[in-house]
Amino acid sequence: MPPSAVEAKKAYSIASKTYKKTGKYIPGGGLEGLKKHDAILFGAVGAPGKPVLLSLRMRTLLIKFTDVPDHISLWGLRLAICQPFQQYANVRPTRVLPGTQSPLRNCGTGDLDRVIIRENSEGEYAGQGGRSHRGQDWETATEVSIFTRHGIRRLMRFAFQTARSRPRKLLAVVTKSNAQRNGMVLWDEVAAEVAKEFPEVTVDKMLVDAMTTRMVLKPETLDTIVATNLHADILSDLAAALAGSIGIAPTSNLDPTREHPSMFEPIHGSAFDIVGKGVANPVATFWTGAEILAWLGEGDAAAALMKSVERRSLDGRSGRHGVDKGGDGGGCG
């Protein structure tokens, strides 16, 4: 790959440190600056808080609180980028990497190779609702899910296209339309309409609670999965854990039209409790880098990076696995 093929243009100081200084995660003109790029690498976000010791019967429990609440960082930073940039398709691939032990029996390297596609622009995280009568006994809070035909249709088409591009051509549509009779019924109807455009894809529909069971008991029946914002958020964490560790999984926030930059990030959090200990597992960041390269059309470079990750992952005897992957730490350095 020529040195200029993929060029890192700029690092932006968009972080909790900035929020604590200015009251805003993204400074003025920040989004305009990000628009100039083809891809964004997003690091884990958070802010360490002061530890609090609690006595729990005969034991002492150490709890660390963040001094920036998670809902502030989510809405002030991540969603503040995803939503205006129309990154409506969140893609989370998982598979068992060499040297990684799945908690499922008989699952080895290369197994659990699947993709979860998450609606990333509306649904349960649409930001609609509110609170009233604060502090009173009748204090009320509402969280309103928004499902639009347009939003569902574009996500379903992307999901079917993804399933069609994979060897097995299987798509599972996750729903909860038995209990949620409005938004989820529309979700099902649009999925059925879009399915007619992709006769080569085998599709089945499954309730989200049943899907959790299927992922554990019959994982071999799954390949590409599409679900709502909330459902896929939960299922993708389960998928990563079943593949060995949530600490090694990447995620992509895509604008498939490429009118806006897409954003790529490790799925894991900030893990301030292990800062400076040399035990963090960097696989998710490198895998995320491979996803960026693939998105930018640098397939050979992406494949080379993943092969390097797999070689290091396989070398468990070296003690180079992060503690979340069964090694004794040491990172990859």
UniProtKB/TrEMBL annotation:
Keywords of the record: Magnesium, Manganese, Metal-binding, NAD, Oxidoreductase
Residue ranges constituting the Isopropylmalate dehydrogenase-like domain according to the UniProt record: 3-329
Named cofactor requirement(s): Mg(2+); Mn(2+)
InterPro entries: ICDH/IPMDH, IsoCit/isopropylmalate_DH_CS, IsoPropMal-DH-like_dom
A GO MF term: NAD binding
PROSITE patterns hit by this protein: IDH_IMDH (PS00470)
A Pfam family that the UniProt record links to this protein: Iso_dh
Gene3D superfamilies in the record: Isopropylmalate Dehydrogenase
Membership in a protein family: Belongs to the isocitrate and isopropylmalate dehydrogenases family.
PANTHER family registered for this protein in UniProt: D-MALATE DEHYDROGENASE [DECARBOXYLATING]
Protein name in UniProt: Tartrate dehydrogenase/decarboxylase-like protein
